[in-house]
Amino acid sequence: MSDRLTPEQRSWNMSRIRGKNTKPELLVRRLLHARGYRYRLHGKAGSVRLPGTPDLVFAGRRKVIFVNGCFWHFHDCRAGQHAPKANAVFWEAKRARTRERDGQQRRQLEALGWEVLTVWECELKDGSALEAQLVGFLGAQENRSGT
């Protein structure tokens, strides 16, 4: 029996891959929430929709965070450089378009005065380094307890 999936099976599998509320995104959200940061989700800054639908929006700071999967967004780590053998030309083109679109959206956000941070899935393995990166990007959280 072949290990290859039929086009229908592949389509069904691909339809199950989420773009929002992914495990990496939830990990970053939990870490930031525990540190006292508050944010809006998925590109909303008040009533305005931001280009690229950032995963976390810190409207008061004019900062956004994207949490990207290394494979899907063609990161230069080992996982991002994995090239599928089946339908290789299609996947290469699809991932290249995603990388180009990410760059365009970043430039649009920066032109609107937003600072942008991309957190890669491979960076989630080192929790202390991730926390330092996030806090460094967002700045110190104000103490709201009045003490």
What does this molecule look like?
With 147 residues, this protein is an alpha+beta fold. It has one domain: 3-Layer(aba) Sandwich (Endonuclease, Chain A), CATH 3.40.960.10. It contains four helices and six strands, in the order ααβββββαβα. The strands form two sheets. A four-stranded mixed beta sheet has the order 1-4-5-6, with helices on both faces. Strands 2-3 form a two-stranded antiparallel sheet. α3 (88-111) links the parallel β5 and β6 (115-120).
Structure class = alpha+beta
**Euclidean distance between termini CA atoms:** 67 Å
Describe the strand arrangement of the main beta sheet, using strand numbers. Answer: 1-4-5-6
At the fourth CATH level, what is the homologous superfamily? VSR Endonuclease
Listing every helix as H and every strand as E from the N terminus to the C terminus, the arrangement reads HHEEEEEHEH
Tell me roughly what share of residues is in helical segments. 25-40%
CATH topology: Endonuclease, Chain A
Main pleated-sheet profile: 4 strands, mixed
Residue stretches low in confidence (pLDDT < 50, at least 5 long) are: none
Proportion of strand residues: 5-15%
Global mean pLDDT: 84
Q: What would you call the shape?
A: globular
The tally of beta strands, per DSSP, is 6
Total of domains? 1
Question: How much is the radius of gyration in Å?
Answer: 18 Å
CATH architecture: 3-Layer(aba) Sandwich
Helical segment tally? 4
User: Which CATH class applies here?
Assistant: Alpha Beta
